[in-house]
Design brief:
706 residues, alpha+beta, five-stranded antiparallel sheet, five-stranded mixed sheet, 18 strands, 44% helix
């Protein structure tokens, strides 16, 4: 390690412009004669507590406690040791460092490294000149223009062109005094298999210099252009004394300041993807350098920002790369999110086809990585069979094991329930439970069926306008009993199947989703037993007219007919949630119903009748309860009561409309997959757009609540 004189260190400290140095990472405002103040670049804060004294060249944050001089600032922000920070500042502010007596071997190694770095810089400059000035590079310029990349930005990234000649770099470098071994160590030439003669490694290719965070060229990535080139599409420098492709990320020297200020860094895959995203205004973007994410690269990303947005291709290879990234980042203080790119498009294609604004919208709508994983499993699973649903839940169980109790966990569990068309309480219990045991070969023990929540009888109240139901018979008495209320026996059968036994929109009976699977109780405890009238018409000891007499033995009257099948299941719950909002805000709700197609947007006949009723009358919905349709009157009464219990506004209504539209697209996709239709990709894109709009509406709703 180089040892610099004390005088050199003092010269560096004196030369530092603290305002220029720290101003890269925080917008500083004058707070006194020599003091400036801004948001701390070392921790997240909303009120500035970070102070800089430009005379003393000292910084201090009174929020997180970080403080020190220019050297310690660079060490903390750039992840450098003391010598690295000193060299960084010396180069930045034009100070020549003087060495103390140095070990000859170390001095030789340092000089060799410096010569190789200078050789690579010279070569990068040569490639840049060749791209913009040579006739041979005309097709390279045309290709970059077709990709929609701006010349000024390409020059900033030092993109160049390597000539077709075998010795375009070899001969001038030799004339400049560089040896063949130095050219080999720099990765600029290779030896032929026959005779071992050296020749240029990069020929007839567009070149992208690969730099460290300080902008020093370490190697090149090069894209093939010639039709007769049988080599790989992208060719990188080989690992050597200077370059190691698994230790750095592409464009970190350009993106690091922007990433620090944004608090996020975007990770793309290709070189042109990175440049296209910078052109779209996303200046905090870096690239993978064509390799799988390594531990060193994760550490490099963490130095840039605490949150990484993955903008990798939406194809299977890109999605696998995201999963690998998550495995490498596990256990480190790095938050991963995913930018939902359309299938079949990389970032550069998207920017060129749909414009920079679309890319910025997608970046703003990034998903937590765990949401991406859940959606990926659901998108690739066969959810048309019970076995496929079981397999999807088994695959998701370890994913949910890493999610703490939170609103995100509840939202994802609800998504799984909606996509699998299963009860949310059951899905939540299966996702939280142990892994299923596979049956023994040829038979053997099978998994026990889950215990379904039990429904109990609840008071039956006739809504306004509905015909009164005939009284239910009390169980036959085995012995005379003291005067008391006649109580209907509790039902102990499992909840009915989808579309059966649903009474009054769960106004009178707990929704199955709110019942505890173990006890069968709702969120407010056991339901009250049903109170039935006695044969004399009184309701028990508390009724007017004195105590009731025991009912005389008599044949039980005929039981009332069972309630008509009514909507249930995930789609029905989504439809009911929207109807509640419409009833709560009919002024804007009716317009929303018309916009989505009215009754045609609903799957249940009863819900369609509700929509028809709402759209055929103005004024309060409670004023038009039909007397000739008890089933519809019962549902409307429940909707009116529920609407009065909930907070309703335009934002909530918008979110429920988007949720219903999502459910409609999900059904269309399911049908399209079953029919082998070619409309699946278009429907997937529509679903993605709706999901982004729904998340934006929910975020707006949470902001208004806050």
């Amino acid at each position: 390690m180089a040892r610099y004189t004390a005088d050199s260190k003092e010269k560096v400290k004196d030369a530092v412009d603290m305002l220029a140095l720290v101003g890269q990472y925080s917008d500083l405002r004058k707070a006194g004669p020599v003091n400036y103040k801004g948001l701390c670049p070392f921790h997240d804060e909303r009120t500035p507590s970070f102070n800089v004294n430009v005379d003393e060249r000292f910084f201090k944050c009174f929020g997180c406690g970080e403080g020190g001089d220019a050297l310690s600032f660079v060490q903390k922000k750039e992840g450098l040791d003391f010598i690295g920070a000193l060299e960084y500042l010396a180069e930045r502010f034009g100070v020549e460092l003087e060495l103390e007596d140095e070990d000859p071997v170390a001095a030789r190694r340092r000089m060799q490294q410096a010569r190789l770095t200078e050789l690579l810089r010279r070569t990068a400059d040569f490639y840049v000149r060749n791209l913009w000035e040579s006739r041979e590079a005309a097709h390279a310029r045309a290709y970059l223009a077709e990709r929609g990349l701006d010349e000024q930005l390409l020059r900033e990234f030092r993109v160049g062109y390597a000539p077709r000649k075998w010795d375009a770099v070899l001969i001038p470098s030799r004339k400049a005094g560089y040896s063949e071994q130095e050219l080999l160590d720099a990765g600029l030439v290779i030896r032929s298999q026959q005779g071992g003669r050296p020749y240029d490694r990069f020929r007839a290719r567009i070149t992208f210099p690969l730099c460290d965070r300080r902008g020093h060229v370490m190697g090149f990535g090069a894209r093939r252009l010639a039709d007769d080139d049988k080599g790989p599409k992208y060719l990188n420098s080989n690992d050597g004394p200077v370059f190691s492709k698994g230790k750095n990320v592409y464009a970190s020297d350009i993106a690091r300041v922007h990433a620090t200020k944004a608090g996020t860094v975007i990770l793309a895959e290709g070189y042109t993807d990175v440049i296209a995203l910078h052109q779209a205004g996303l200046r905090n973007t870096v690239g993978l350098m064509g390799t799988s994410l390594t531990t060193d690269q994760v550490m490099e990303l963490a130095r840039l920002a605490p949150t990484v947005l993955l903008a990798l291709d939406a194809d299977s290879a890109g999605q696998e790369a995201m999963l690998r990234a998550a495995r490498v980042a596990a256990g480190r203080k790095l938050s991963l999110r995913v930018i939902p790119l359309p299938t079949g498009m990389d970032p550069a294609d998207l920017v060129q086809a749909q414009g920079p604004e679309k890319m910025r919208e997608l970046a703003a709508a990034s998903l937590p990585f765990v949401s991406f994983r859940v959606r990926r499993v659901l998108d690739t699973a066969d959810l048309t069979t019970a076995e496929g649903k079981d397999a999807a839940i088994d695959e998701l169980r370890p994913v949910f094991a890493d999610i703490p109790p939170s609103a995100l966990r509840e939202e994802l569990a609800r998504l799984v329930a909606d996509r699998t068309d299963l009860q949310p309480t059951l899905v939540a219990s299966w996702l939280a439970g142990p892994a299923r045991r596979a049956p023994a070969p040829g038979g053997g023990e099978r998994r026990a069926a889950p215990v379904l929540p039990q429904r109990r009888a609840t008071p039956v109240v006739a809504p306004p306008g509905a015909a009164p139901a005939p009284p239910r018979a009390a169980p036959a008495a085995q012995a005379p009993a003291a005067p008391a209320r006649t109580v209907a026996p509790a039902r102990t059968t499992p909840p009915p199947a989808d579309g059966e036994g649903w009474e009054g929109m769960d106004l009178l009976e707990p929704d199955p989703d709110t019942l505890d699977p173990g006890t069968g109780e709702g969120p407010f405890g056991p339901a009250a037993p049903a109170v039935l009238p006695s044969s004399s018409g009184s309701t028990g000891a508390g009724a007017p007219g004195g105590p009731a007499s025991p009912a005389p033995p008599a044949a039980a009257p005929p039981a009332p007919p069972p309630p008509a099948p009514a909507p249930s299941g995930p789609h029905a719950r989504t439809e009911r949630a929207l109807l509640i909002q419409v009833v709560a805000r009919p002024d804007i709700g009716r317009a929303a119903l018309r916009e989505i197609g009215g009754a045609d947007a609903f799957t249940s006949d009863l819900h369609r009748r509700v929509v028809t009723l709402l759209l055929s009358h103005d004024g309060p919905p409670s004023a038009h309860l039909p007397a000739d349709d008890p089933e519809l009157a019962s549902l409307m009464a429940g909707l009116v009561v529920r609407a009065g219990e909930q907070v309703s506004d335009a934002v909530t209504l918008e979110a429920e409309v988007l949720k219903l539209r999502l459910a409609m697209v999900e059904r269309q996709m399911k049908q399209a997959r079953a029919n082998g239709s070619s409309e699946v990709p278009a429907l997937a894109r529509e679903r993605q757009t709706l999901q982004q709009a729904y998340h934006a509406a929910m975020a707006k709703h949470m902001e208004s609540d806050a």
